[in-house]
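Narrative of activities, Objective 1.

The group set out to show that a structural description can be obtained from nothing but a protein's sequence at a throughput compatible with the screening campaign. Below is one input-output pair from the validation batch, recorded exactly as produced.
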Amino acid sequence: MKIFYLAHRVPYPPDRGDKIRTFNEIRYLSRNHEVHVFCLADGVDDMANVRYVEDIAASVNAVARKDLASKIRALISLVSCKPFSLGYFDEASLHQKIMQERRRIEPDLALVYSSGMAQYVDGFEDLPRIMEFGDLDSLKWMQYAARGRPPQKWLYGAEARRLLNYERKVAHGFDHSIVCTARERDDFERLIPGADVSCVGNGVDLDYYCSSGTAKRPGGLIFTGVMDYLPNVDAVIWFSDHILPRVRDAMPEATFTICGSKPTEEARALATRPGITVTGWVDDVRPYLDAAEVAVVPIRIARGIQNKLLEAMAMGLPCVSAPAAFNGIEVTGDPGVFIAEEADEFAARVIALLESPNLRAQASRAARSAVERHYSWDAQLSRLDSIMENIVKAAS
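Output recorded for this entry:
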């Protein structure tokens, strides 16, 4: 099958949620299909990452998105009452490339990741199209609005409403939609009734994320994630302000490593506090995970599956997670993850793990076993095959 795969970022390196998903889907689909990737690069420097996608796909067409131009287009969209996400990702040269390649390749199917990319296959009603929302972006903007302050609160609320209307239009116009979790499917069916939707979960590379057995740093806590992303910044600030002091009162040797690229000024400032390290970009997160005794995922704004949680579990790390971050995980038996919502409860869970080697060892085994049973990429993405076959067959 000839597949056009559209993504709003270059699917490499797989170091953030959407890139992890798109990279692994392209790699999986390319085993048995001819996959042609169309994507936007985050500036000229990001274009260097295209070659890694070319190694696994039949072809890659990428366009470097200019940040200032994207923001101007988003502002114009805002004034014109359209979702500003659409304007932000609307690059004329990528439209042209897709049109040219469609005439040349004659694809059998278009698989579109992220609602902001649906505009690139407008007018392609004769081509079977699958919309992969991942998670409904409109709900994430609603969460931003709920936690924001004016004027951001008003802007976020407006974007949530506009984007939901657009998501409804896309879902009913495409042949099928995909979300990542049962919770997202429930939200989808409630907000977009009557549109066909399936759930295809995320996975984790179990060979790559595997503990090397190196010595642990006593009292070591870790959080991983791209650190210019609002939910991640909110998480580490909340943890540093309200949880870590409680932990260090009980265990002064406890340390907190914030491991991820592009830390904001607020995130970098946390490194001035006792016991906190902000690494910035690292070429391999695994040694940092391996050195920690406990992974913390204090994310309060979350949709879908948290890859950082799956990766920590695969590394055999006991985890303490906020409910919002764990909601997308579906496992049977003990997941090796302790759930805590309030700061004092979260701190108590962390302290209990740091104080008990036996509890950590038990949680470590349970976490690795849980992802082995439920979250290999092949097990999750095999559902795509039947969805695509049914869509193409129905259109023929």
